[in-house]
């Protein structure tokens, strides 16, 4: 029978069990990918006794099929492209999508970091958490961003992932923790009962902001 998580909090609790060896370590910080990864990361951080922060990355969607990613962008000018897909798209269209997502990334960074210091990861083990791994483009960007921000070790933790993306990310991160890698993947939402769209307000409330 297929494993189904009740919600993102339950998925985070399952991940925390898999990450128990990192509990109470002073170098560990848990980063939730905005937006859906933040409630998962909150449960992980709580169980590990680690600080929680947010990492903003934006998926770049194919213009005619936005659910298909051709790459992602992150803070500090990080850009990750899946050349196999991006090379099939008109370069002008690629740039339109990139600029739109950079603008949204900047908006979210301003909102989520209000009253919070810039994210610093020097000497830290960054546990980067999302609610699932589909194409892997966003996760790849997150791993790259964490390294550029100085993390000495990057652990990617997701409750469920597509086999191809899982194998690819195993080459990118120092460790990938993914309790569920189903042969028949479909979509991340398939493995949750409650997979509501996480709002800006929910993210800021979870991070302890004012929203």
Structure description:
The chain is an alpha/beta fold and 211 residues long. It has a domain at 8-57 and 119-206: Rossmann fold. Helix content is 36%, strand content 20%. It has seven helices and eight strands; from the N terminus they run αβαββββααβαβαβα. A five-stranded parallel sheet has the order 2-1-6-7-8, with helices on both faces. It has a three-stranded antiparallel sheet with strand order 3-4-5. The N and C termini lie far apart (39 Å). The model has no long low-confidence stretch (mean pLDDT 91).
Describe the secondary structure blueprint for this structure.
Elements: H1 8-18, E1 28-33, H2 37-48, E2 52-55, E3 58-62, E4 65-74, E5 78-81, H3 83-86, H4 91-112, E6 125-129, H5 137-148, E7 153-157, H6 163-170, E8 175-177, H7 200-206
Segments where pLDDT lies below 50 for 5+ residues?
none
Per the principal axes of the C-alpha atoms, what is the gross shape? globular
Radius of gyration: 16 Å
Which strand order spans the largest sheet, edge to edge or round the barrel?
2-1-6-7-8
End-to-end separation in angstroms reads 39 Å
Major sheet: 5 strands, parallel
Number of strands: 8
How helical, in percent, are the residues? 25-40%
Fold-level CATH name of one domain: Rossmann fold
CATH architecture of one domain: 3-Layer(aba) Sandwich
The CATH class assignment of one domain is Alpha Beta
Judged by helices, strands and strand pairing, the structural class is: alpha/beta
Strand fraction: 15-25%
**Assembly state of the chains shown:** single chain
* Helix count from the secondary structure assignment: 7
Let me know the average pLDDT: 91
